[in-house]
């Protein structure tokens, strides 16, 4: 891992995801792993990008101006190099030209952590991979929620996370690994 050019992208680690409306989640240790990654990046002076979801849905707790739009306490005091919002899944389609920002700084690879594993995190990893970035997906530094399919059957959050890991690995979009492995290679 070339730490000089590896950024940390932290996606949608917002208080609104603590609301019970989302249902059962997986990976109760995700926030601790996210904090461990952020702390390691800060200690080394490596670039950190914080992204927040700015929902346009009227009742969403992730809407700007709502308490749920704020970052979770694990990100308090983070000295981010870039902070911006997005209204769709991919951070590459947000309020900032993330691709341009990374390229201008010579950043060719990034580690991805955040919420939700199978939506904004997976989509950002896929787009990043398509754009030619070396993407490392910290699976244990993400979490998601159970989700019903079109036939009403429910996939658990753990099943969805496993599917994301399979999609990203099998599709060649990202290296899927653990926080411990990432920290050990810094």
From TrEMBL:
Top-rank taxon, per record: Bacteria
InterPro entries for this protein: Isochorismatase-like_dom (IPR000868), Isochorismatase-like_hydrls (IPR050272), Isochorismatase-like_sf (IPR036380)
Record key words, sorted: Hydrolase
Keyword Protein transport applies: no
Transmembrane annotation, as ranges: none
Iron-sulfur as UniProt keyword: no
Pfam family, one: Isochorismatase
CDD domains linked: nicotinamidase_related
Domain Isochorismatase-like, first and last residues per copy: 7-151
Protein name according to UniProt: Isochorismatase
């Amino acid at each position: 891992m070339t730490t000089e050019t590896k950024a940390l992208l932290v996606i949608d680690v917002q208080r609104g995801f603590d609301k019970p409306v989302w249902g059962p989640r997986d990976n109760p240790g995700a926030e601790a792993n996210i904090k461990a990654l952020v702390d390691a990046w800060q200690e080394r002076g490596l670039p950190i990008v914080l992204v927040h979801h700015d929902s346009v849905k009227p009742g969403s707790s992730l809407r700007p101006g709502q308490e749920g739009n704020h970052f979770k306490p694990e990100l308090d005091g983070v000295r981010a190099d870039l902070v911006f919002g997005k209204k769709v899944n991919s951070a590459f389609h947000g309020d900032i030209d993330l691709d341009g920002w990374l390229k201008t700084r010579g950043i060719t690879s990034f580690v991805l952590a955040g919420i939700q594993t199978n939506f904004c995190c997976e989509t950002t990893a896929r787009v990043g991979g398509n754009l030619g970035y070396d993407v490392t997906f910290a699976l244990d530094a993400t979490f998601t929620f159970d989700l019903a399919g079109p036939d009403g059957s429910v996939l658990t959050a753990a099943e969805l996370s496993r599917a994301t890991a399979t999609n990203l690995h099998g599709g060649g979009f990202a290296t899927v690994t653990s926080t411990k492995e990432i920290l050990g290679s810094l």
